[in-house]
Amino acid sequence: MDQEIFPENFLWGGAVAANQCEGAWLEDGKLPNVTDTLIGIMNQHPSIQWNEEKKIWEIALDESLHYLSHEVIDF
After folding, report:
1. 72, 58, 66: which is closest to 24 by C-alpha?
2. CA within 20 to 30 Å of 57's CA: 7, 36, 41, 46, which one?
3. Spatial separation of the C-alpha atoms in residues 37 and 44, rounded to whole Å
4. Is 0.85 topped by the overall pTM?
5. Paired residues of 27 in beta bridges
6. By the 8 A CB rule, do 25 and 38 touch?
7. CB atoms within 10 A of CB 68
C-alpha cells in the first residue's frame, strides 16, 4: 500500500458552522430563533407559525422532534 506524504509546510485545518459551536440555545435569556427550529435539511415541519390572536409569528417547537442546534459542542 502506497502512503501519501504531505509536504513539510502542509497546514491542517478544520471548520464548523456557527450553530454547531454556539451552544446554550435557551440559556442566559436567549430566546429560540429560526435556526433553533430546524430539524433537518429541506424538512417541511412548520416550526414558525402565525398566531392569529396576537397577530405575530411564533416559534412552535415539537418536543417529539430532534432539533439540530439543541445539542452542540458549546465551543
Report:
1. 72
2. 41
3. 12
4. no
5. none
6. no
7. 17
Model confidence over 34-67: pLDDT tens digits?
Answer: 777 777 666 776 677 788 999 988 877 788 887 7
CB 14 within 8 A of CB 63: no
The beta-carbon contacts of 35-41 under 8 Å, at least 24 apart in sequence, are: 35/69, 36/61, 36/67, 36/69, 36/70, 37/61, 37/67, 38/67, 38/68, 38/69, 39/65, 39/66, 39/67, 39/68, 40/68
Q: Which residues pair with 57 in a beta bridge?
A: 50
Handedness of CA 10, 11, 14, 15 (dihedral sign): negative
Average pLDDT in the 70-75 region?
Answer: 66
